Amino acid sequence: MYSEIIIAMDKFKEIVVREEEAKQCPNSYVLALTDTMNVVSGKWKLPIIASLLKGKTRFKELLENIDRITPRMLSKELKELEMNSIIIRHVYDNTPVLIKYELTESGKSLVDLIDVMINWGLTHRSNVL
């Protein structure tokens, strides 16, 4: 428990330092937020990322895991996520060719963001309803 408090305090210190840096240069803060939104915005990117948290996944499995996404849209979103270094596309030399997708370290770091968004959404929903 004590080590958890120290870790939490260290994270808080990092956040405070970043906030102080942002006050000195608010433009960098806005750019960082814009970059984040460019990577995760859209209807399908977060569900794709959440599906890939389980590990390497095939295209067809992603289609089955994400309701109402079309193959064309999934392909488009996967290409964008790969371009932004959020996922890696693995091609295996089998017959037929096997392709799997996996989160990069940068993609895996979005777990905290997703958790915060889920908690906010649950709180917001309970306040509104």
Automatic annotation (TrEMBL):
It comes from Chryseobacterium populi. PANTHER family: TRANSCRIPTIONAL REGULATOR, MARR FAMILY, TRANSCRIPTIONAL REGULATORY PROTEIN. Keywords: DNA-binding, Transcription, Transcription regulation. Transmembrane segments: none annotated. InterPro entries: HTH_HxlR, WH-like_DNA-bd_sf, WH_DNA-bd_sf. Pfam families: HxlR. This is Putative transcriptional regulator. It comes from the Bacteria. GO terms for molecular function: DNA binding. Residues 25-129 form the HTH hxlR-type domain.
